[in-house]
Amino acid sequence: MIRTLPLALPLSLAALVLSLPATAQDAPSPNQVVAEANAEEWVKIAPEDLLVMTLAPDRDGEAREVVIQLMPEPFSQGWVANIRTLARAGWYDGISVNRVQDNYVVQWGDPNYDNPEAEGAAKPLPDGLRVMDESDYVDVVRAAEPGDDKIVLWHPRPDLRDIYAQIATFAKGWPIGIETTQDTKAVRRWPVHCYGMVGVGRGMSPDTGSGAELYTVIGHAPRHLDRNIALVGRIVSGMEYLSSLPRGTGDLGFYTSEEADERTPILSIRVASDLPAAEQPKFEYLSTAGGTFLRYAEARANRRDPFFIMPAGGADICNIPVPLRAAPAD
Amino acid sequence: MIRTLPLALPLSLAALVLSLPATAQDAPSPNQVVAEANAEEWVKIAPEDLLVMTLAPDRDGEAREVVIQLMPEPFSQGWVANIRTLARAGWYDGISVNRVQDNYVVQWGDPNYDNPEAEGAAKPLPDGLRVMDESDYVDVVRAAEPGDDKIVLWHPRPDLRDIYAQIATFAKGWPIGIETTQDTKAVRRWPVHCYGMVGVGRGMSPDTGSGAELYTVIGHAPRHLDRNIALVGRIVSGMEYLSSLPRGTGDLGFYTSEEADERTPILSIRVASDLPAAEQPKFEYLSTAGGTFLRYAEARANRRDPFFIMPAGGADICNIPVPLRAAPAD
């Protein structure tokens, strides 16, 4: 179809319209792109890397289960090991969600640890935890290669790919920031704070986070926390049970002692591989190294499915969530 | 204090450390910067620009009031006028929150309008509404000046200020995107989709949004909606009553007909200037043209208050929320 453009249309806009595919109205949405992925592009998550967090039932008696994926190497492995140790010691059983700060984080742990509303003594931690420091959170690779995956974050201007890092991209299914230090040619890489990412709460000193206090992001990506607090994973299922909790009215969104009954009890946190096979949740993510993910990222950056009239021309890394799904039965 | 840096520290990091103020550990947080603003830097919001939305009380009988600020000229004035017309006709009284999609939007309106779960006929709209089109949402200024305010979004590299627009900045207290078209020297400006912004729901065609269906952002900024759906305001108080609602399990987060009792009733929406003086909410925002806002934006981009060990070096516009507060008594 040949269209005659109105004469008053600015040339730059005309160029944009003309560069769209002729079938723009039938362009697939990002979800439709993902639905077309081959089975081989979905990567199964090992049960050792999944945590099952069981919250107390809600007011209507409905069960609430949250599944968390722990990060693979090379990131945050000391904390990840601590979290498995804490889960296997049963340490998390009986703790609670103590902080819900709107447009920021939900935090769970011991209500008497580092809480402005603490009323008793902190729960003793089990033996065998490693003392970690924030510097262990950033991976330093002595090579010019930026990662295991291709850099896929789509933007017509590479220098506009990210505001918080030289490059933001995806590696092994995770959103990461990258910087190259000029003098050493070392590459520094770190996971970034997108919605649903899980991190390690800590005190003022960077070596005070054990993995006993955890949080997840429930608002706009607080990227200023990148390289300041260690990320250890992400929520893969049940996010809505955390993001919809009532907000705390105390300092930093902690529930005050008057609101103590708002603290959602955590009945247990288990490593999925420790559960009977039939009870193990099975999830997978779309490989971020495949062609489908590249097309998905491009579709997120330039929505051309029917609702949209103006493609954005770019997308920030946290606006390209890595697709996750329950694994189909074998 | 003179520090000896370890020899292994990369030079670029050393330079960063040395460029911090000597009193880095005492640097104020963004909130502390805002607390130091002079009274003249706070701008009162006119009662004509505030809506009071009263939700039904929660399960514990607690009242839930949400206050919305409507946008000033030049943006979206046709929809803003429609919203006042709808409020004054009592049209919103008895509608409900019909859609809560995690990490995206909460939407309220007629449960039988453009809802995959509709069960009855749509509620007739009052007379006097303007038919608006998305092209009325973008302001085109025939001048080289980008706005009324100075451009204050801090970043050491101006070309890294935004991923979705040539420039993202603030004007009259609102976050906006700016693009200059090369051929006409016209400046195109539009408000952007940050957390808590309020927009006009519409169908597939860009002229189908009247202002009867409204939504607010409850997750990571969906900037791909910029210039695709008209923004008309933002939540200034009571956001937590919307963001913590249970998520809908239907298509696009709509509550299914089986979940119809999850739809939160909206008892009324009133223009604040129509209320008795004693019942009018009073709010103000920090001028985005003043020196305090510039220092606040810089502090958001480079956190140096005690918890932080690595300033980000930049911030995206939605990570610099415009400070809002209840106005002190006269």
TrEMBL record, chains A, B:
SUPFAM superfamilies for the chain: Cyclophilin-like
Task: Domain (PPIase cyclophilin-type): give its ranges.
Answer: 80-266
Please state the span of the N-terminal signal peptide per the UniProt entry. 1-24
What InterPro entries has UniProt attached to this entry? Cyclophilin-like_dom_sf (IPR029000), Cyclophilin-type_PPIase_dom (IPR002130), E_coli_cyclophilin_A-like (IPR044665)
**What Pfam families does the annotation carry?**
Pro_isomerase
What keywords is this UniProt entry annotated with?
Answer: Isomerase, Rotamase, Signal
A molecular-function term among this protein's GO annotations:
peptidyl-prolyl cis-trans isomerase activity
EC no. given is: 5.2.1.8
**Top-level division of the source organism's lineage:** Bacteria
Provide the protein name: peptidylprolyl isomerase
